[in-house]
Write a structure and sequence with these properties.
Length: 102
C-alpha cells in the first residue's frame, strides 16, 4: 500500500499517518483499529523514509500478534507520530496487556 501512495504522489513523498494506517489495516482490515490507535501529526516524508517506516511498522503488529499485546483479547497497541523541530520522525509505541500479569 505504501508503494501505491508513492506512485500516486509521483514518488514525491507519502503521508506517514497513511503509511502506518495501511500497514495496520493489512492485519485485519479496519477491525485492527479496535485494538490499535494511531495518533499524532500528518507528516509528509520522502519516499525512502516512507519505505523504511513501512518495514518498521509492519513488524509492530506482527510481533504484537505473535508474542505481545495483540496475542490475547485484552491487549492493544498505540502508535504516536511525533515531528520535532528538525522534522525528524519519531515513532513511539505503547502497549497494554503485554503479559498475563496485567
Amino acid at each position: 500500500m505504501t508503494d501505491r501512495h508513492l506512485v500516486e504522489s509521483k514518488w514525491e513523498g507519502a503521508n506517514i499517518r497513511e503509511v502506518v494506517n495501511c500497514e495496520l489495516r493489512a492485519f485485519g482490515d479496519d477491525a485492527i483499529f479496535t485494538r490499535a490507535t494511531v495518533r499524532g501529526s500528518d507528516i509528509v516524508v520522502k519516499p525512502s523514509v516512507a519505505q523504511n517506516v513501512k518495514l518498521a511498522v509492519h513488524e509492530l503488529p506482527t510481533n504484537a500478534m505473535k508474542h505481545g499485546a495483540l496475542s490475547h483479547d485484552t491487549g492493544s497497541i498505540e502508535v504516536e507520530l511525533v515531528a520535532t523541530f528538525l522534522i525528524v520522525l519519531g515513532l513511539v509505541s505503547h502497549r497494554s496487556g503485554f503479559s498475563q500479569d496485567e
